[in-house]
Amino acid sequence: MKRPRTLAEPFKIKMVEPLRIATPDYRSKALEKAHYNPFLLHSDDVYIDLLTDSGTSAMSDHQWAAMMIGDESYAGSHSWEHLEKIVKELTGMPYVLPTHQGRAAERILYGILGGKNKVFISNTHFDTTRANIEFTGAQAFDCISDESLNHEIELPFKGNMDVKQAREIILKYGAEKISAVILTVTNNSAGGQPVSMENAMEVRALCNEFGILFVIDGCRIAENSYFIKHREKSYREKACIDIAREMLDLADGFVMSAKKDGLANIGGLLVLRDKTLAGKCTNLLIISEGFTTYGGLTGRDMEAIAVGLEEIFDEDYLHYRIKSTEYLGRHLHEKGVPLIRPYGGHAIYINAKELYPHIPVEQFPGQALVCNLYVQGGIRCVEVGSVMFGKYDENSKLIPAKSELVRLAIPRRVYTQSHIEYVIDVFDDILEQRTSAKGVKIVYEPPFLRHFTAKFSEV
Ligand SMILES: *Cc1c(COP(=O)(O)O)cnc(C)c1O
């Protein structure tokens, strides 16, 4: 058959969740009430919600069926045994600890490994990873090449760790100070860009040389495996699940938020090879999350994750997943929307500074685009720029972020191709009205993580 033009979904719909399509007028008022911060909108007022891919996946009939046989026993639940078996098969690691989210796994592991004078190295620490490390008094260094950070260059593995930079940090601080090297796959904070197997092998060799623990943050390891299969020679014929397993064979530990490639709405995992370290983590797990056979999850959650971890490696699903994200990126690019390329696995990032060159960074061009996408199309997304990462100098002048981006994150199995077509269409209006777009100013902000609750007004 000729390659079909339509990227048809490899699933059909058994249950629907009606969406309300409000008018731009209504949305304009709703946004004003939400102080121009889409985090403060009612979700019922949103048509296409691209705020995050975390915990927003649609579960399959098999997952829902498995939830019905969830075993809610406090200890020794068969749902736990099911999850443990699947995770051991995926990771090849013997010690599996369930947690309520990815950050709980991080808090436990980095709480034990961290502390004052300790150092962690990553390709890019995700926000919660960095926060949990810094909370212990340790330092977290991102090692990523300038090429990877350059939005103009197209490279197959822009998520890779810069091993040369990592080595310099090890030599500077001394190997005994380095708590762990964390490879985040795909590299979420660097645009969902993939990490190659070659890079994972180099990281393993570096950790061997200095005797350092190697942890994989594999929230999106299935998506990463698809990229390896299609971009790295010698993996073309391999199944994505085997590629993931091969990568995990290199690591000493694995942390994961099941809200991403677990295809579940809640859950996390901490998986280890070392018995002593696993023992310490287990103590903290019991104190803070729950007993070892549920760790803050219900039996039915564990069933959903176990089934989700198998479904995520379905080759048809992964093809559809990566290609549908790419489809959105490619069509926006063809329209002339400035964005980061190549496209990541779970999201498309628009360069708002380039789209709205007339809006100064002090007036947050990214937030302006987020607001316009909502009013024009009922689309909700998030600014990843100076609202999220901007700081102030001693004269309260804004120190802007490195770039002013807007992230369109794609929930898994939730929206159809026609929803994506709709999003692409909305950008016609955005482009048409780009010169009249207005910036915003902050009228209220909390001291931490201001993007969640800050209030704005139009300038
Ligand atoms: C989401 C995420 C986490 C944290 O997981 P939560 O389930 O949200 O607590 C950690 N690392 C990466 C790379 C993530 O994307």
Give the topology:
Blueprint: H1 24-33, E1 48-49, H2 61-68, H3 78-91, E2 95-99, H4 102-113, E3 119-122, H5 127-135, E4 139-142, H6 146-149, H7 163-173, E5 178-184, H8 197-210, E6 214-217, H9 221-231, H10 240-249, E7 253-257, E8 268-272, H11 275-288, H12 299-311, H13 315-335, E9 347-351, H14 352-355, H15 365-377, E10 379-380, E11 382-384, H16 386-389, E12 391-392, E13 398-399, E14 405-409, H17 417-432, E15 440-444, H18 450-453, E16 455-458
Parallel strand pairs: 1-10, 3-4, 3-5, 5-6, 6-7
Antiparallel strand pairs: 2-8, 7-8, 9-14, 11-14, 12-13, 15-16
Helix pairs in contact: 1-15, 2-12, 3-12, 4-5, 9-10, 9-13, 13-17, 15-17
